[in-house]
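Tokens for Ribosomal protein uS12 methylthiotransferase RimO. Go.
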Amino acid sequence: MSQNPPNLRPDIAPRAQIRDEARPGQPTIGMVSLGCPKALVDSERILTRLRAEGYAISPDYSGADAVIVNTCGFLDSAKAESLEAIGEALNENGRVIVTGCLGAEPEYITGHHPKVLAVTGPHQYEQVLDAVHGAVPPSPDPFIDLLPASGVSLTPRHYSYLKISEGCNHKCKFCIIPDMRGRLVSRPAHAIVREAEKLVENGVKELLVISQDTSAYGVDIKHAEERGHRAHITDLARDLGSLGAWVRLHYVYPYPHVRNLIPLMAERLILPYLDIPFQHAHPDTLKRMARPAAAAKTLDEINAWRDVCPDITLRSTFIVGYPGETEAEFQTLLDWLDEAQLDRVGCFQYENVDGARSNELPDHVPDEIKQDRWERFMEKAQAISEAKLAAKVGKTLEAIVDDIDEDGIASCRTWADAPEIDGNLFIDEGTGDLSVGDIVKVEVDEAGDYDLWGKLSV
């Protein structure tokens, strides 16, 4: 079986950052959060509830009374990683509760690790809490353990993921997310806006809007309006954009109504950035995938978006080596990429996933051909990225500071860069007065394949 290494997978969230210290005698829970940013949000919600009940949160196994492993089941390689994490937690701690997407297959987990204390599925918060209570009873201090003003965050303090819905109504043949997480369930718009307001009040400078299908937000509740907020992605984007933070949209399907978001980007109400999972370009491949898109129309849409907002950044992910993909179909994808000129591109090699309908398709592509096509695709994507970044030399860009190392080099991101998955803008001098989370103006003086270098603008 071919396995994509982590840097080829689209299901990787930023590494969880846990900041907490236990008081003497306080029950402590460890957390291992795997999978996509949506799973990271689930982990944050679980830990927020646990901390409010008097538990401390541990960043390692040894200091915990029990460990929660939030798993991923997107690809076989992700499943293998989840099983490895569970086994490591059992070896290091011995008391393990499993949740997340792979938890939708409890027999699969217990077949490999029969000693786990409990297995729950994705976003089953109450069941996770029940399992924790059974393993490690809470012992709250009424004078200390009050509901925190802000929830537990597993990302740096200056940005936060904002999940607007669960599940998905699509039936893509390579994906089992709807089987694990169910059909689309949208959150009320007023609840999302309130959460965003609290995040911004607590210092968050960037809101990363996520779901399985952001464009479909509110369809299941007929775009209901409640407490002055309508459950439609355009209205929600406008509401979030009024809070003063950067707003970045992920997992947007190119439905026609997406064009209504582009004027908000041109007005700088939200970031001029769209993360759209095109997956392929050849119509026959897309049909075998059962994807809700057609390549010819997406090129027209891209051109229309750029007419309204010329500096829009477009990121996408693609699959090469999908069953039945011919050399001609792959060449169509390369030609499409040449024409589309996407700014940020990820690509992974097709893998069978237990339960996916694509497993039964004929004409699976040999591993060596998948690897060859991936290399050719990434070579073209890299050349496009290099040219686009070279065009930014001499320009002054707004950037947010993510990190400052011991040598004083600041790692930043521009509007065109999402955390962990896109590039960086580095500042290597004059950073003494900068702090993580600052938003600064940077004059770009050097460009690489995926990253930029510059100096603070005076």
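Residues 1-11, 142-150 have pLDDT under 50 and may be disordered.
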